[in-house]
Amino acid sequence: MTYSRETWKLLLTKTSAVLDDALIMVAHVVSNMSLTVMGPSVTPVLDVLGELRLDLISDMLWKDISFISALFGDGLRPFLSSASGSLLQCVSGKNLTCQTFQHIVSEFSHQFDHMREEQAEEVLKFFILPFLSRNSSDSGCISNNSMAWLLNNYGRFSVLVPLKSLFDLNKDFDPLAVLDLLSSKQTAELMVLPLPHPQGKDEVINRVLDHLLESPVERNLPEVLYHVVFLSTQLEPPCEFYQAIIPRLRESLTSVPGDLEPIISGAVAGLLVLTPTDCEVLLPITPPTQCPTTPVNESRICEDINSNALQSYLAAGLVPCNISLEQYACAQLTGFTAQHLAQLLVCKLSSNMTYSRETWKLLLTKTSAVLDDALIMVAHVVSNMSLTVMGPSVTPVLDVLGELRLDLISDMLWKDISFISALFGDGLRPFLSSASGSLLQCVSGKNLTCQTFQHIVSEFSHQFDHMREEQAEEVLRFFILPFLSRNSSDSGCISNNSMAWLLGNYGRFSVFVPLKSLFDLNKDFDPLAVLDLLSPKQTAELMVLPLPHPQGKDEVINRVLDHLLESPVERNLPEVLYHVVVLSRQLEPPCEFYQAIIPRLRESLTSVPGDLEPIISGAVAGLLVLTPTDCEVLLPITPPTQCPTTPVNESRICEDINSNALQSYLAAGLVPCNISLNQYACAQLTGFTAQHLAQLLVCNLSSNMTYSRETWKLLLTKTSAVLDDALIMVAHVVSNMSLTVMGPSVTPVLDVLGELRLDLISDMLWKDISFISALFGDGLRPFLSSASGSLLQCVSGKNLTCQTFQHIVSEFSHQFDHMREEQAEKVLRFFILPFLSRNSSDSGCISNNSMAWLLNNYGRFSVLVPLKSLFDLNKDFDPLAVLDLLSPKQTAELMVLPLPHPQGKDEVINRVLDHLLESPMERNLPEVLYHVVVLSRQLEPPCEFYQAIIPRLRESLTSVSGDLEIIIRGGVERLLQLTPIDCLVPLPVTLPTQCLTTPVNESRICEDINSNALQSYLAAGLVPCNISLEQYACAQLTGFTAQHLAQLLVCKLSSNMTYSRETWKLLLTKTSAVLDDALIMVAHVVSNKV
Which domain of life is it from (predicted)? Predict the structure, then answer.
């Protein structure tokens, strides 16, 4: 049951005299009965206890360790795992000493295992961090011992703290002294982040890896390495980091358990890919890797296996498929031929049955004499029948073959191309698509030559189409990259021909390799010679990344685009452009990149197929948004864009259409809605009036029926003489009846109208405001919310003036509320941005008034534009003059981004916060703060930003409402965590925070509550659990003891019922005199049941 806080407050106010005793009893009950109170009422009860007890405690008592120990240990402990952010914030702001603070931390730590992760993070965010970062003489509660400092001040919550913020609070903190307390992510941060260690990065990495490798599984080495690679991807650490960690990890391969080898090798391969181009990492020479070894205990496998029935089949030369593998492995296999084994392998490898590697090894060891011939037979069967063996047993079988065959091959044979060709071509080919990481690593470490390595790559390439993407990436990570990056005289298997080098060494797996790592391995690699082999992402990397081309960036971009535009669909131009925009957003390439690619893409618009135009224009618009503020890009003047043209074949459309029945309706002046559009399009429409066509349009555009653009064009071409009047009628019907036409036919109809009307309008009329007003206002308005990208692009390229453009923007704005977000973004991307960024004398349609400029040129779509692109188009744009028009995200960008304000960052932040705090809920302060934190995490703004925003937010805490206080404090704490290590942020001294106060209206709570039945139970000393909390809160609780209250609390807090904070407050106020004892009883009950 759930009850309001108000109901609880009413009850507890009435029972205030016995509340303390009741709480003690509850604590005892909970303790003695090993209970965990986790119901929905725990949080509001603790909030009410905050009001009735915590907020009345004197400053002196908050410093008294005995009092605090009794309060949080005896009374409140059962409730702590459900503390609300407001209660935590309230306690954090009290007059605590380091000793009393640390005791409360220890009490919360006892409840850590009962908390959800979000709840644990709230304890950290709203209690621990605010207290430790307060401005006082003992700020941070520093001690000389890092282990004691971390345990005492953070308890079990220390694993949730970014390592950097521990240094921020304690400059002498030594993470190497607390390695056992760090989480996997913190351990990775210690190695990757530029933290202020007294030791050098090399020593830190070695000491951390010494610690992890002592007990790699228990100390979570795999998870640490995952975070190391992930952080390195995000943060791009310097060369010294890679030079320290990669050789050390490679050295460890000789000493770790076999199942850890592929994990460490994968991490090394991942880090090698991320290493800067000019950073030389010396790799130790490791001995050839041993394949994993599987111990076999035949007695254990065969203990309960009876193979007698199988023996009779085998004696008859039969190999039944429905008998388990264990029976075969445990049988006497006398006379078992290569053909028998081949039959068994094909059967079992194609099934979904799973068998252990140990069982397979027992079988294949027993049949070793015929195994090689059997494998050749399996390969032939699979090849001749075009089978793919993909069952779950393929991987363990290949692992076992590695043990029984591959690991016994001499070093000389690994260099013999004839032997390797037969081994991987004749015997192992059917299994290769399921090779495990450990097997791949094993083969990669053998004594291969470049020739034999490349042959094995070609065999894996033949299986590429049968692999999942993760499997293909494993071949790259555990076989190809380790071999090519080994330290030897022919490292990289270099050849002068880039095409031959890429195909020979990577095969079909080359598409997964970041382009940078190809340059790392082969300084003479020329990606322009292998454009047909590159994936869309690699092609984008070639244009965006600062790679060491002998050619300049301009020539590279032009040659790549020449290649793509020769055959744009087959060569995946749309996908390449997607990756170009994504990479540009991530990597912020220099001005030269934008100056080379944008004009070239704009020029291509005159020659590409119509359906590619909006894609290229969208990419251009996206790149223009990302262009640096001070980077001037010259855009070519393109001729007005043609609307798309739909060919119509009436014979084909009307081939099977009979419109006879419709003709009789039309002769009677009727336009039935339930007859298909195809019949209308194929009918003789003599005498078809504008009113008829308007009726038909309203009917079909509001339905869920879908018709082709070709069918609509046939109909509207036949009715062209009455089309304009019909459109005006439709607009009036829609307006007068407040309809919205949103069916699937609206978009193709508007495309057809573009062909039949818009593309025939003269250049002069596109400049005529009266004509444009009538066209978009009277005729097209109902359709505008569904305009296609190609239609929008077509209109944007017409001979518009700023005035006619702005009128069309206003018409689209009227439809904004009827658009999905993707549709609104289309209007921006394909109509507004291309027009405003064209190369002309009035480019940008600039005006001196920022408010007018934004409203006229962007309308309601302005909220979708990154703020930076508004500055790009209008150097004099003043966002402080249009704060009411900005979205929460744009408002956050204004404070966080390095935009070219005439004012300083400090003034901008203060003026924005002045605006928000005048009316924080209406002006979306919570959402703005959310975006401020997200952007700060992404963009790492300079110290000045944090020094401006954090103190101002802290100051606002004294004037905002309670709910906002929690949100602002959360924002401050997140920003403090993101502040650079060497950035000192002055924090204002704030008054101790008051707990939230819940007003209680007993009359309203008890208005419809009848407690008469309850009173008779109470008179008999009974506290029934199935009676609602409201009845207790509204009853006369004379003689209600601490034990009664403890019983009630245990009952209600363990249930799923929800009650309001107000109800709880009423109850606990009434029982206040026995509350403390009751809480202690509850704590004991809970403790004893744990």
Answer: Eukaryota
Contact 125, 171 (CB under 8 A): no
Q: What is the pLDDT of residues 1028-1085, one digit of tens each?
A: 999 999 998 988 999 999 899 988 888 888 888 888 999 999 999 999 888 888 888 7
- pLDDT for 287 equals 47
Q: Is the pLDDT of residue 517 over 80?
A: yes
Q: Assess whether pLDDT exceeds 70 at residue 310.
A: yes
| Rounded Cα distance, 713 and 875, in Å | 45
Task: Report the length, in residues, of the chain.
Answer: 1090
Query: Residue type for 1008, please?
Result: D
Identify the DSSP state of 179: G
Tokens read off for 642: 């043609």
- Token reading at 64: 């008294």
3-state secondary structure of 1059: strand
CA 922 to CA 915: how far, in whole Å? Answer: 11
Contact 24, 1076 (CB under 8 A): yes
Task: Classify each residue of 1037-1065 as buried b or exposed e, where b means 16 or more C-beta atoms within 10 Å of its C-beta.
Answer: beebbbbbbbbbbbbbbbbebebbbbbbb
Helix, strand, coil shares of the chain, percent, nearest 5, are 65, 0, 35
For the chain, give the longest Cα–Cα distance.
Answer: 99
How far separated are the first and last CA of the chain, in Å rounded?
A: 24
CA angle 931, 933, 936 (to 5 degrees): 105
Percentage with pLDDT > 90 across the chain: 40
Comparing 149 with 641, the larger pLDDT belongs to 149
- Give the closest residue to 957 by CA, choosing from 949, 944, 947, 967: 967
Are 357 and 351 spatial neighbours (Cβ–Cβ below 8 Å)?
no
Q: Half-sphere exposure of 449 toward its Cβ, with a 13 Å CA cutoff? A: 11
d(CA 537, CA 1077): 68
Tokens of 21: 């005793």
Asked if residue 201 lies in contact with residue 240, where contact means CB atoms within 8 angstroms, the answer is yes
pLDDT at 286 over 60: no
Looking at residue 175, the DSSP 8-state letter turns out to be G
CA distance 213 to 204: 14
Q: What secondary structure does DSSP assign to 195-225, as a single string? A: ---SS-HHHHHHHHHHHHHHSTTTTTHHHHH
- So where are the chain's domains? 2-6+1004-1088, 197-287, 291-391, 409-521, 526-626, 640-760, 763-865, 879-978
Strand pairing partners for 1082? Answer: 28
Going by C-beta distance under 8 Å and a sequence separation of 6 or more, which residues neighbour residue 322? none
> pLDDT, tens digit, for every residue of 727-782?
899 888 887 776 667 778 888 898 898 888 888 899 999 999 999 999 998 778 88
The span from the CA of 736 to the CA of 947, in Å, is 56
Tens of pLDDT, residue by residue over 393-407, are 888 898 898 888 888
* DSSP state string for 499-543: HHHHHHHHGGGGGGS-HHHHHHH-TT--GGGGGGG--HHHHHHHH
Sequence-distant (≥ 6) Cβ neighbours of residue 846 within 8 angstroms: 853, 874, 876
Q: Which of 84-88, 118-122, 907-911, 976-980 has the lowest mean pLDDT?
A: 976-980
